[in-house]
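Bumping my old thread because nobody answered last time. Still need a sequence for this structure:
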């Protein structure tokens, strides 16, 4: 997993976006995997996806179902 700058990631896209739009998306957590703020710029995984309203991050796709169940309902008490 190699990290590249947000501007380099944008150059590699088929339809580049305005940099301010991408910075807002990075601040808002709309990249998967999430962008990292390092120094004065954002770093993203070279294979990262920018999430849209229709393509939102859904933890249930990445977190084991048993873990989600324990988070929602608590763990059973041990005797």
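Sorry it took so long. Here it is:
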């Amino acid at each position: 997993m190699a990290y590249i700058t947000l501007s380099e990631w944008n150059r590699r896209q088929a339809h580049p976006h305005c940099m301010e739009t991408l910075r807002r998306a990075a601040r808002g957590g709309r990249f998967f995997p999430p962008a990292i703020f390092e120094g004065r710029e954002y770093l993203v995984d070279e294979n990262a996806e920018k999430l849209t309203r229709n393509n939102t991050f859904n933890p249930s796709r990445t977190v084991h179902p048993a873990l989600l169940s324990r988070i929602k309902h608590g763990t059973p008490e041990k005797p």
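Residues 3-73 form a domain with the Multidrug-efflux Transporter Regulator; Chain: A; Domain 2 fold (CATH 1.10.1660.20). Let me know if any region looks off to you.
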